[in-house]
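Quick one, tokens below:
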């Protein structure tokens, strides 16, 4: 025969100490779930951006080349369309003065990084802005790169000043500049960034 009094469980349920413990447990569980969300919200409001995940540097202040009507004229006289018929990113190469062997080597590695995208290769366009390297017609550069001219000089701030060097800009399909790669950047780091962004 069960000797437990039927009113004992009701009494425990109304025990103030037990109620406080239950509420405290509930609040702690709630805090565990809410803390990361609140932390992320505070970091976003303060303008903090995570570092070390990508190899490129953020473009700041943010720019949208389509909205700015930044004109790049191609060799055939047509204008580069920042907003393409299909969503494709643009990788811009900007060479310093006298682009020669070292510059051409980086351009070749940038084109190879595009090829490693495999089935997504069509989602990235390569745009070389400036005077083409001396050997560009012989080494097949035009097979991979569209070559154009920065009509109004609006990309000058990203162009390296050192001879035989190259910098890069990665531009979103709507014309927003995502990241920049100053002269001396690691092409394998750029390749890793492309594989993260283009999936």
């Amino acid at each position: 025969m069960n000797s437990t009094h039927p009113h004992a469980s009701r009494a425990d349920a109304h025990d103030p100490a037990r109620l406080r413990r239950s509420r405290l447990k509930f609040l702690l569980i709630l805090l565990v779930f809410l803390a990361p969300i609140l932390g992320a919200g505070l970091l976003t409001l303060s303008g903090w951006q995570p570092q070390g995940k990508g190899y490129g540097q953020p473009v700041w202040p943010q720019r949208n080349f389509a909205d700015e009507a930044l004109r790049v004229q191609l060799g055939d006289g047509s204008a580069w369309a920042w907003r393409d018929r299909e969503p494709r990113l643009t990788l811009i190469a900007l060479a310093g003065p006298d682009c020669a062997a070292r510059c051409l080597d980086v351009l070749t590695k940038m084109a190879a990084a595009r090829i490693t995208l495999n089935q997504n290769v069509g989602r990235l366009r390569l745009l070389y802005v400036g005077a083409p390297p001396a050997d560009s017609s012989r080494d097949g550069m035009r097979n991979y790169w569209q070559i154009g001219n920065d009509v109004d000089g609006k990309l000058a701030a990203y162009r390296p000043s050192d001879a035989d060097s190259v910098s890069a800009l990665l531009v979103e399909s709507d014309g927003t500049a995502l990241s920049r790669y100053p002269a001396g950047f690691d092409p394998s780091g750029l390749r890793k960034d492309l594989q993260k962004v283009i999936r």
